[in-house]
């Protein structure tokens, strides 16, 4: 079977799943979106609108979309399964894949966090599982809007583990299509830890209620992000983890760039600030929808390293506690000011 004919199942059609699945369907790939009934109904009724920062705005008509809410129907069709559920649902999705997918289906995690591919590997049977990393943010239209719209609000290439599947699957050949740039990478561990450094900002966006571009433009928030990254780099260094470059920058330079005055940051960090004014973070989406966040897989992963290596992490602890409180309150983003996030006595510029 030619790579372009492989059947791709999107396991968890939300923001990332609908964006990736929509681009693939528009490129003529055979795609089935495994969705919750609410999203299934919206897609069947209005189709899927897929737009991006570069000005593309395309519609996949309802009859051109494969969508199903039943894993027993969707998963057995897959040659390739792209897992796009939040980390808290990885285990459940792994069990569904084990129960319903063909043994030769290749599973690819397109999730944040550093160990979702390992979780899938451990629980989805003997299948080949590859780690992936999505660098861009996707904004989903408010519930009820038809057609459901997913907008890629920033840029970047999706990285997927070079799995040495010679002859079996040319990952980039299947997935690299218009609107979705995909490349393989030989060291996904470094890529995922590098991405996690940037994802430490997801919580700040979620706590502040600010769009990402406005939050990053404010040095008071950048100092908190820089402080978290310092703590994370110390814990990673003590654990022998070397994160990959982020937004073209060596990780050690990130805190320095983030601490620059606003005017200089805006000048030098143009690539980091190329973001749609509406984009926030996936953790903000979770707080707004009253769902559990990925704080355990993001700040929590670094806190685990810090605890094991005895490196201090007061800012990461404070941010984690605030996100947990907001999750428990289920009132959406608490709209905190930067001063409310820094623990008493701690320095943002540590
Ligand atoms: N959003 C973004 O911009 C970015 C997200 N990411 C990462 O990508 C991953 C996915 O995030 P995102 O797309 O935002 O998440 P979403 O919550 O928007 O999408 C996940 C979807 O999967 C659904 N789902 C969960 N379990 C099942 C199931 N068993 N069967 C069918 N559907 C299911 C969820 O429904 P329900 O909620 O009802 O359970 C939800 O609709 C996360 O790890 C995130 O961190 C990475 C980069 C950017
Ligand atoms: C915002 C972005 C793209 C980077 O932090 C992200 O990964 C998310 O929203 O989860």
Automatic annotation (TrEMBL):
Associated pathway: Cofactor biosynthesis; (R)-pantothenate biosynthesis; (R)-pantoate from 3-methyl-2-oxobutanoate: step 2/2
Entry's EC annotation: 1.1.1.169
Example GO molecular function: NADP binding
UniProt-listed GO biological process terms: pantothenate biosynthetic process
Domain of life where this protein originates: Bacteria
Key word Ubl conjugation present: no
Reaction it catalyzes: (R)-pantoate + NADP(+) = 2-dehydropantoate + NADPH + H(+)
GO cellular component: cytoplasm
InterPro entries listed in its UniProt record: 6-PGluconate_DH-like_C_sf, 6PGD_dom2, ApbA, Ketopantoate_reductase, KPA_reductase, KPR_N, NAD(P)-bd_dom_sf
SUPFAM superfamilies the record matches: 6-phosphogluconate dehydrogenase C-terminal domain-like (SSF48179), NAD(P)-binding Rossmann-fold domains (SSF51735)
Keywords: NADP, Oxidoreductase, Pantothenate biosynthesis
Family recorded in the similarity comment: Belongs to the ketopantoate reductase family.
Job of this protein: Catalyzes the NADPH-dependent reduction of ketopantoate into pantoic acid.
Protein name in the entry: 2-dehydropantoate 2-reductase
